[in-house]
């Protein structure tokens, strides 16, 4: 009986030690797995952050290169006297669609008309729905150009009476826009375009609504 008791106690001790060892092993494995999982997540987060920063850097560089290329193209067009044809004309339909949700039905550049010995010329005119979009393009836009454009628009219906029932929207275009001139043009109610990633893009503030005349 004494021997059997010792054997039983030994077996119980071994069983307890085995369980303790298994518990320690499970705990260590769990801690190791948790540590590995944390390290994996940290590595993934670092990798995602690095990839995001790299992609953002590449995107900034791409946008910068595109804008620089468009500016060079715009400066060349300005020297050749073809800013309206090369920059404004191809950009207007998309901008009008994006800003007003309507398709351009007619667009022309260098629009002229003579009445009673007086002649009026507009750089570009686009008709879409119940609107006539009138453009004035300058290589360097100034406040005086904004004032002159107000008078040009006021005379539009006199020269083009066939569109007297349509609403008029003024669009100014330039290579680069000075912030002060942009604010003045916005105050006057004009949409302002300048060279950007999309050749010509809207430079007005997001909540800006052009004045209908």
TrEMBL record:
Keyword Coiled coil in the entry? The reply is yes
Q: Organism's domain of life?
A: Bacteria
Q: Name the InterPro entries for this protein.
A: DUF8196 (IPR058509), Restrct_endonuc-II-like (IPR011335)
Which UniProt keywords are listed?
Coiled coil
Q: Which SUPFAM superfamilies match?
A: Restriction endonuclease-like
Occurrences of domain DUF8196 (ranges) = 95-199
Residues in a coiled coil are: 4-68
Q: Which Pfam families match?
A: DUF8196 (PF26618)
Whether Cell membrane counts among this entry's keywords is no
Protein name, please? DUF8196 domain-containing protein
Q: Which species?
A: Kryptobacter tengchongensis
